[in-house]
Design goal:
With about 350 residues, the chain is an alpha/beta fold. Helices cover about 40% and strands about 15% of the residues. The chain folds into two domains: about 190 residues, Rossmann fold; about 140 residues, Rossmann fold (3-Layer(aba) Sandwich). It is built from eleven helices and nine strands. Helix 6 packs across helix 8 and helix 6 runs antiparallel to helix 11. It is globular.
């Protein structure tokens, strides 16, 4: 396959107090979220000056990817676009098109299979191609979901080992893997063959097992959820992390592993570092929260490896994966059916 640019595609976040409510309205558009709920969530951002850390983290990741590509002699420029805030996907497409780029390989900062992590990004790309009028001129492909790629798993293994060592004096330690809750129906839709939790839950469970094996630990562990929103009457994946912490008995050491997230954005800082840590203290536990991959060298290297496996059409049998579920399949390109002669393979 031939590509001439990389698109770092992410969620986006506000960068000042005046951005907070407009950003939250972008995120919740069409979901029927009441204004009072938006105000509740806005408090989390306002506590940090109205600035989400996610944008700076994406700037840092973009720079790290550029450095790794240059180190390997791969001549692919990296562009950055967001779903919910500046720079939007439309901005990124216009920029790369003006630079003469036509065949784009996207890194979506979501490691798992779900509507918001896969289909919604596809819809976003389709909308951006239409809004920019570039559907017949630009093609967007994306790397596969990388939930069990070694580059994504390794930072968590390292973090769990360090956390367990920090809690080595605890008599009973529990490892709690946490990810974003989603509606149960949406989870099932992500892969009905995997049961009610779908591929979304199955992937997280498999990654948790891989991390515990890599950390060489037999500590008890569980998968829990955070950041539920929406209609209270709608079933969502459970248990919530705070409820799960309260239900633990005879545990004095808690390792919190945010395997559903690639960086320490607002939901990690607030829901885990604030609320979950408070729950642990209230229940007499010492808790350590493991870092997300961020710009960990293994993660950055792994993302470039994922780019190269798509560029070089590496067969499934040679694609690295650390669970029986992988490697997850590639996605079809969106946009123009370009002749490969118009681009150059790095």
């Amino acid at each position: 396959m031939s590509y001439d640019a990389v698109l770092l595609a992410s969620f986006g976040g506000p960068e000042g107090q005046d951005d907070v409510i407009p950003f939250l309205k972008n995120v919740t558009r069409g979901k029927g979220i009441p204004e009072e709920r938006l105000e509740e969530v806005a408090v989390h951002y306002r506590h940090h000056g109205g600035v989400s850390p996610i944008n700076q983290q994406n700037r840092d990741l973009k720079a790290a990817l550029e450095a790794e590509l240059e180190k390997r002699g791969i001549d692919l420029p990296v562009y950055w676009g967001n779903r919910n805030w500046d720079p939007y996907f439309t901005d990124a497409l216009r920029e790369l098109h003006a630079d003469g780029k036509r065949d784009v390989l996207a890194i979506v900062t979501s490691a798992y299979t779900s509507y918001s992590g896969v289909k919604q990004y596809h819809e976003d790309f389709e909308r951006a191609l239409d809004e920019t009028g570039l559907r017949d001129e630009v093609r967007i492909s994306r790397i596969r979901e990388f939930f069990d790629h070694p580059g994504f798993v390794a930072p968590f293994v390292e973090g769990v080992r360090a956390a367990l060592d920090e809690l080595k004096d605890a008599e009973n330690t529990h490892v709690m893997f946490v990810t974003h809750s989603i509606p149960t129906a949406a989870a099932t839709e992500s892969g009905p063959e995997y049961g009610e939790g779908g591929a979304y839950e199955a992937q997280h469970l498999a990654v948790a097992e891989a991390i515990m094996a890599g950390a060489e630990s037999d500590a008890p562990h569980s998968l829990v959820y955070q950041s539920r929103s929406g209609n209270p009457a709608t079933p969502w994946l459970e248990p919530d992390i705070n409820d799960a912490i309260a239900d633990l008995s005879d545990v004095d050491g808690l390792v919190i592993v945010p395997i559903g997230f690639v960086s320490d954005h607002m939901e990690v800082l607030w829901d885990l570092d604030n609320e979950a840590m408070e729950s642990a203290r209230e229940n007499g536990m010492r808790a350590v929260r493991v870092p997300t991959p961020g710009i960990h060298p293994a993660y950055v290297t792994g993302l470039v490896d994922l780019l190269l496996e798509r560029i070089n059409s590496v067969p499934d049998s040679e694609r690295p994966h650390m669970t029986p579920l992988g490697p997850w399949p590639d996605h079809e390109p969106q946009g123009a059916a370009l002749d490969s002669a118009v681009t150059q393979t790095p």
